[in-house]
């Protein structure tokens, strides 16, 4: 889904908050203009310095900023092959990774996933990578040694191995992948619609990320040198897609050390799976959620991407075997698991089937489960903003999925015909509905037809959620500044203590609201 205006502003705020205004200028330039070369970024941004300002200084400064953004996985360098027969060299360009910027606000969620599954020692290693973006094993060991509670080189090495085995940490991507010149940035057509340009930019980002991603054997090497002074390293020439090898590397040889980073894709996948289980629990029951969780666990290793519509087929024996491993399913009989699967496979007027039953196996329908939560979120927003009548109109049009005439909508949704056009028009102005006018011979006024386009509504809601998240972050920043100012005030008759408690409570409420709002953003953007 293309980046929206408030999405850009929100991302720029995150970068400003984490790295400062100079870095955010470069980031905003890439967000608004798309992939650019170093020379173009230097020309389009002005990074001031004390005294004088010149092009050569600006280019050096921009290069340092780009390296910083690459270090923190927010920018990817790439180049495009020149046309056949051309003697010109490929120009290195830089593309911003919008989703990775937003992931910086989810580090606490990622940490919770790792802590729950692998424990606190692995959490410490992940925390180092989240803080510094990319590190070698040697750097992780040094970072641990400098901490207040070091766990030791052996524990760091073992924890990193567990994180890589679980796909939570991966080898860094190729620093500068080369794309074919077809559909490259130079092929942009002037005068094209903005939506088309944004869509092309999005597809380019996907191509760059895919081209930069190494094969699995390189991304997740599982055979490590366990020495405390060694590095988890290997040689590209010694690793093929189907074979892993171990190679001793001197710790002093920094060029050969494997550099690691968090694997955001796997971390988001786990959050997606957890969200699906929670949706099933809310719309069905605890037992059904336990069965779905078991099905996801059995088939997870065979999923190849985050946004998978359906899980792999899983047999009854595999499902039951996984169910009884869990605390919630330890006492469940196979008959109860079969009942849950039957319940999950059923459809109704208000719920789709969450599980697809085949001849001898079962499949989790992720798309159906998430669509229920997305529909609920859309309807909730419409209810809060426009009222009950608008909610009924919107729900009816969502279920129809086609253009419907005004009077028919009013009849079906049981709303007053005189009020219906105004309500529909209000939602249309806010991009929650599409409108089409149908001229009929002999009729003075054209008929108005209305439809819910879920993709357009999702994009509109995302833009509003980015805006709301930005406002919450700014408010939170204001409260933190107020809290810092409070430290300089005298403690008069307990005023300091009362004011401090009040600020702390408000801060916790803001953090909770930000956390929940980000869940909604992930539902529409990442899941």
From TrEMBL:
Domain called RNA polymerase III Rpc82 C -terminal: residue spans: 159-371
One record GO biological process: DNA-templated transcription
A single MF term (Gene Ontology): single-stranded DNA binding
Family per similarity comment: Belongs to the eukaryotic RPC3/POLR3C RNA polymerase subunit family.
Gene3D superfamilies in alphabetical order: Winged helix-like DNA-binding domain superfamily/Winged helix DNA-binding domain
Organism annotation: Microthlaspi erraticum
Superkingdom as given in the UniProt entry: Eukaryota
Segments of this protein annotated with the region Disordered: 231-255
Annotated PANTHER family: DNA-DIRECTED RNA POLYMERASE III SUBUNIT RPC3, RNA POLYMERASE III DNA DIRECTED -RELATED
InterPro entries: POLR3C_WHD, RNA_pol_III_RPC82-rel_HTH, RNA_pol_III_Rpc82_C, RPC3, WH-like_DNA-bd_sf
Annotated function: DNA-dependent RNA polymerase catalyzes the transcription of DNA into RNA using the four ribonucleoside triphosphates as substrates. Specific core component of RNA polymerase III which synthesizes small RNAs, such as 5S rRNA and tRNAs.
Keywords on record: DNA-directed RNA polymerase, Nucleus, Transcription
Name of the protein in its database record: DNA-directed RNA polymerase III subunit RPC3
Domain DNA-directed RNA polymerase III subunit RPC3 winged-helix: 379-446
Pfam families documented for this protein: HTH_9 (PF08221), RNA_pol_Rpc82 (PF05645), WHD_POLR3C (PF22536)
Gene Ontology cellular-component annotations: RNA polymerase III complex
Record carries keyword Cell division: no
Subunit structure of this chain's protein: Component of the RNA polymerase III (Pol III) complex consisting of 17 subunits.
